[in-house]
Every structure is written in structure tokens, then in C-alpha cells.
Amino acid sequence: MGDGDGWANCEAGHRHWGRYGAAGVLAYCMDPDPYILLQKRSRLSIGGGTWGLLGGARHSHENPVEAALREASEESTLDPATVHVQWLSREDHGGWSYDTVIGRLPSRADIRPQSFESAAVAWVPAGEVASQKLFPAFAEAWTRLYRSLYQMVLVVDVANVMGSRADGWWRDRRGAAERLRDEIVAIDGFEDVPGAVADLCYPEIVLVVEGAARGVGDVEGAEVVAAPGSGDDTIAELAAPRTPDEQRLVVTADRELRARCETAGATVVGPRWLLEAIRRSCST
After folding, report:
1. If residue 231 lies in a helix (H) or strand (E), which one and from where to where?
2. Phi/psi of residue 208, nearest 5 degrees
3. What does pTM read for this prediction?
4. Burial class (CB in 10 A: 0-12, 13-18, 19+), 203
5. Residues of the chain where predicted confidence (pLDDT) is lower than 70
6. Coiled-coil regions in this chain (predicted)?
7. Which residue among 99, 201, 219, 235 sits deepest, i.e. has the most Cβ atoms within 10 Å of its Cβ?
């Protein structure tokens, strides 16, 4: 029992499990089409006999991702380290919320029940999920959640973003690029991603540097690509999605580069979007 185990009432007067809210994991893998990892709830659980997501109550010290992965590992043999977290989708009931953490696994691993709450755990083709006997709340959310089964790759035109800030970056281009890299990596989930249904995005981050900024290294959470020539050419090459469940979001204000990236299949957003995300991150 943790401090989050217990009942709570939302502003609508409904009773929910989880004193500090609840969270679950929507884990999927491509094989080659998407398969969804579902839990069949035991008869001793709320909604016994229905299929839904591994998850449960948040504790007071946990963020939603931590809670969802912990609950999933308690209810099944799922290894949290194998889940590549991509999105977080929140249902706010007023005073109580449920967070769905959406993440990809590299394969359909053999995952089994591990607590009294799980009668079974199974990989189900995404096209067959709606035909199962689903837990009512998951059934209502499934169509929306299905639209978030993809990985976002954020490709940043570092020179262009630095050029949009009047902070003296030109005096030390490499140092300014390193600061920008560290600010981006520190963002705990990106909001207002163009075209997204979910509330927060946890993208793969690729930073493209050129000129005097070459030599900036990778850090945990971000890959740095040094353009051998034109930074625009390298960014345009990186704009094309690599897998069917991937989308790429390029950050640049360069009009010509924007057109090239959109032709390659990427969505493009201006530096203001990224700088606003940094500002929010720094203010929390």
C-alpha cells in the first residue's frame, strides 16, 4: 500500500481510485502493424473481466510517467526500461485525473501477469482492440489514444533558433549552442505539438549545428549532428520520417528550408514555439 492507494471524489461527484490521481501505460509495438499490450482485470479488481491498460494509483511523490511504469511492473512482468515513452494524454475530471503514458516496445516480449489484479496480459492487434470487452473508461478513450501511436522526432535548426535570441550568442557560438542544447533537454514534455492529440510529447531530439558551433557533443536525451557543409542541406535530409510510426517536427524560421522540409514529409514550426517551451521549463 502506498500513500496514493485510496478513493477520491472529483468535482463531478464521481468516485475514483487513486488519492492523487491514477496513471496507466498504453504500450505498443510494430510487428509490422501496431499491437497493443492489454491487461484483463481479475474478478477481484474494479471492472473485473474487462480488458484495459496496466496501471493504477499515483503516489504523492510520483509524476505520471513514474507512476504508470511502476504500476505496470507491479501488475505484470513488463520491464519499464524497455518502454520508450512518447506521449502523455490526460483526462482531467476536476480534482482528479487519469494519465495515459503511451510508449513503444521494440518487440512483442513475453509479458505475463504478476499480481492478483491481472487475470491475463496479451498483445492484441490494434484493429481488434475495439472488439474486446473493454473497461468502460478505456473504451471511451481508445479512438483518441490510437491517434497517438507514433514517435515524434524533433529536429532543431540550432543556428536559426540561436539567431532569434538577442543574448549575445554571436560572441561564443559553440557555448550558445551548448546552452540551447541543455535547455531543450531539460524540458519535461513538450506542449502544443502541431497536430498532436495528446497533451505532452517526449520526442527524440536531434540538434543540427554548423560553422563555429561544430564540436558540440551529444548528451543524454539529445543527438547533435554537425553539418559537414550547409546546415540547411543536413536538416532537409533529416526531415524525412524513417519508419511508418514516426513523424518529424523541424524547428526553423527559414522559409526556403521550411518548404524543403515539408516536401520531405516533416511538419515545421518556428523558433518561438521552442523558446516558449524553454521559458515554461525554466519557470517551473
Report:
1. helix 231-238
2. -105, 125
3. 0.92
4. buried
5. 1
6. none
7. 235
Residue 73, amino acid: S
Q: Give the per-residue pLDDT at 105.
A: 97
Find the DSSP H helices in the chain.
64-75, 136-146, 158-163, 173-185, 231-238, 255-264, 271-283
Phi-psi region of 55 (alpha: psi -120 to 50; beta: other; left: phi over 0): left
Tell me the three cell numbers of residue 111.
509479458
Q: Which domains does the chain have, with CATH numbers?
A: 7-146 (3.90.79.10), 151-283 (3.40.50)
**Helix, strand, or coil (residue 278):** helix
Instruction: Let me know: does 235 contact 262? Beta carbons within 8 Å.
Output: no
The predicted structure's pLDDT at residue 169: 86
Cα separation, 87 vs 23, whole angstroms:
13
